[in-house]
Amino acid sequence: xxxxxxxxxxxxxxxxxxxxxxxxxxxxxxxxxxxxxxxxxxxxxxxxxxxxxxxxxxxxxxxxxxxxxxxxxxxxxxxxxxxxxxxxxxxxxxxxxxxxxxxxxxxxxxxxxxxxxxxxxxxxxxxxxxxxxxxxxxxxxxxxxxxxxxxxxxxxxxxxxxxxxxxxxxxxxxxxxxxxxxxxxxxxxxxxxxxxxxxxxxxxxxxxxxxxxxxxxxxxxxxxxxxxxxxxxxxxxxxxxxxxxxxxxxxxxxxxxxxxxxxxxxxxxx
Length: 270
Known about the structure:
Strand order of the largest sheet: 5-6-9-10-12-13
Number of helices: 4
Low-confidence stretches: 81-103
Oligomer: single chain
Strand content: 25-35%
Distance between the termini: 65 Å
Shape: flat
């Protein structure tokens, strides 16, 4: 009797272990779920996989102060063919609830920050002339988008530019453009024209600040300093400065001598 009970117990343990191994192996074969802009592949075996039917998704429009323009964010949504080959598109309310589309929050200096979960481009619509144009002419992910919005009661200094961060390349080579890739930060006028890149390639913007006394923008920019194709805690941050009136790629305000001195001082701390 004891042998029978022992055999049952051992058999149960072995069976549980086998089931656990099978689950681990099965999960290991699953492709990780990725967010962002999926890039087309040249591999003929994956063409059908990469060409799922898509539709445009529009975010809520934004009225730009002191201009004739409305801004309309747009993205792409993949339609899954699930119900008897009939493609069903969710309502804008459903999609907005899932992806936080069309919402924006108050930001410093009376700029608003657009929060659009799947923003790939911006349409500029001129309300008076009916003219429309796209901000960008290639596949991208707009990771940051700041635009001015002043209440009527505001009497302080006003700024009339758009600041945007754009993911243009799959810098970590995972097949997607998303927030894990490098971004380029641009400043543009309120019509979306005259875009000037103000951060170096292969960086991400962490924060920005307007120095009103000098009319400069100061930016905390993270570099992939260890060249691991990631942007995280282990990478260095530089502070760059550029002019709002004559924007150009930002220059470092803390030179190598100062940084070496800082490291020397902090190296004495245990």
